[in-house]
Amino acid sequence: MKSFDVAKTALGNTLRSKLRTFLTVIAIVIGAFALTLTFGMGAGINKYVDHVVEGFGQEDEMYVMGSQEAAQEQGADDEGPSEYDADGDSGEMTMMGTSTLDDDDIDAVRDIDGVESVQAIVMIDVDYLEGADGEQWTVNRMGESVDARALEMVAGDPPAQDAMELAVPEAWVSALGGDSPSDVVGDTVQLGFTNLAQEEETVEATISGVSEPSVSQTGQVPTPSRELSEQINEAAMSGLPEEQPSTYIYAVAQVDDMEADETSIKEQLTDDGLTGMTLEDQLGMIQGIINTVTWVLGGFAIIALVAASFGIVNTLLMSVQERTREIGLMKALGMSRGKVFGLFSMEAIVIGLMGSLIGVGAGVGAGVIGNALLVNGPLENVVGLVLFAVDPISIVLITVLVVGIAFLAGTLPAARAAKKDPIDALRYE
Amino acid sequence: MSTPVLETENLVKVYGSGESRFDALKGLTFEIHDGESLAIVGKSGSGKSTLMHLLALLDAPTAGVVALHGRPVSQLKTKEVSRLRNETFGFVFQQFFLNAHQSVLENVTLPLKISGWSKADRERRGLEVLTQLEMDDKAENKAKDLSGGQKQRVCIARALVNSPAVIFADEPTGNLDSATSEIVEDILFGLHRDHGITLVVVTHDDDLAARCSRRLIMQDGMIVSEEHGVLVDHHVDSTLGTETDTDDDTFDPSQLGLEDQDEIDGADQAEQSEGGRA
Ligand SMILES: Nc1ncnc2c1ncn2[C@@H]1O[C@H](COP(=O)(O)OP(=O)(O)OP(=O)(O)O)[C@@H](O)[C@H]1O
Ligand SMILES: [Mg+2]
What we know:
The complex is a heterodimer of chains A (429) and B (278). Chain A is of the alpha+beta class and 429 residues long. Chain A has helices spanning 3-14, 18-54, 68-75, 103-111, 181-184, 226-236, 258-271, 279-322, 324-332, 337-375, 392-419, 422-427; strands at 61-66, 94-95, 98-99, 115-121, 128-130, 136-138, 152-156, 165-169, 188-194, 200-212, 223-224, 250-255, 274-278. Chain A is built from twelve helices and 13 strands. With 278 residues, chain B is α/β, with parallel strands linked by helices. Chain B is 38% helix and 24% strand. In chain B, helix 6 (148-160) packs parallel to helix 7. Chains A and B meet through helix 9 and helix 12 of A and helix 2 and helix 4 of B. The complex binds adenosine-5'-triphosphate and magnesium ion. Adenosine-5'-triphosphate is lined by residues 15-16, 22, 24, 42, 44-50 of chain B.
């Protein structure tokens, strides 16, 4: 018997008792549907996270922070206070669970092999921004100069790191007296802030371009260049007779060859009491959680599929029983055991294929429609949100998995059928 | 005579064991020659079907040898046995064994499908055989919608479709009335005569047995007598059991030829009229 005929006969046989096949297929559809939806959501949310984190930095950058242990030690009181040490790092503040960095730390990072340059990130607090027409606008928050590279611009360019430049958000254009974003590019603005002696200081800067909000939440506030933020920081720390030690919230190290040097740099950072994180580490943490949730949900879907596979076993066993004579006849007419086995396995595969095609199709449909409804409806405000993504590879894998489970379920009935003795079958009433 | 197509030596078939042990065949030795028509007759339960199944390689004997063209079949691989059943043998079973939901053509071409023929070739050959049996107008009908005689003709068509060398028929007329039986018999003997197909027929039907060139009469798993030659008067007493001398049979080849010819012509008419009714 040709394989094509085996497949066609199998299809014909499954369509013979339509209701039974339909009920068996339904069970598989449910499993395949759940699996598709779960992994589609996993893929969608991962994609969103990917997109968000992409805006945070570049692959050749390593984020250096104070070690979390140090911060925890400082924060925790259950072991009692630690002894005061005048030479120690007691002046460190903690910030968002990690301790801040000082100049020594930055120098230490700069000395690590493989680190090309280090950019220390300071927290700058600007009170107002004064446009060309002299009007002043409150600045609630300034962006960070490291984000400058990844800004999405509507007009002009991102601020050049070594020039006194900044990018303003699109929403600020009309306040600054421009009709369209390009009107304000090249304008000179004043940034006002107070120094440690509570004296007013201003710094002049040029608008290099207009940014739009990105998925990673950058571009919504004025973003200074490195030079500008350093100047502001320097002026802001002035005013007291003694020079204040600078503190940095974190530093960004440029690494030439991240793949080769990542581990050694991280080790040295740990020795220096610091932590290093690559973009991948940051992504990994979030995606690890998403993947875990996806797999747990996927696990339930697979349990549903395993339950459905017993439906296949049952259906096919009944079918083998009912068709004892037919099988006997085929064997009597010279069909080999292997082909009989193949025919019944094929029926299982046909059932699995029907179930997975319908289930995966419905899952993709439900996911795409649900995503559209949610993202354009209640979750409209979340820029770039993706809840469901169609990942062709996982769709193929799910189909293969479902068909594989169906095939396994079919082996028992198929072996039964193959074992039937033509004589017994022909005597069977 | 030529070398036998099939021969058996001391063929024994035992069903069950211990208390329920039943000796269905108790050591049979005989030969079937190429182009022969052999009837196996005997009472119900005498082991006719059992013997046919062994000859047709559908079952394996408990002891003894079945040889095909002088070669013991126990030496053959399963695959070869399957091939032989598919290509060398044709079967007409006691019950019809048609797939009710399939068309006549599909039923007839099942052996070819198993054999791996292409769909187009299968249909061409299937129609050819159906035409031969004057069933071509029913090719697309569902098998369940046929009359008993038509079903039996479909079974014969299926047995024929792969151009077998031997046709085994177990009670081919068992389910049919005498008129339809006659038609089916005519078809079988027509094939036997025109295509030289060897016929092995298991039957209760005296008329059918009488038309065969040889009869093996069985009783309790043994061959109790053997008769040669076509019987003109169509009367065989299968319970006789004493007629072991085969030499004094009233066998006349010339008479056989004439007799056969008449029979077939009559059959053709009967068949046509039956076809007209359908
Ligand atoms: N699988 C089996 N197990 C036990 N006994 C069996 C089996 N198959 C057949 N027999 C017995 O073997 C004997 C011969 O059976 P077989 O079918 O060959 O008879 P038969 O001559 O064809 O009869 P009939 O004319 O009624 O078809 C019977 O007594 C039957 O009960
Ligand atoms: Mg029988």
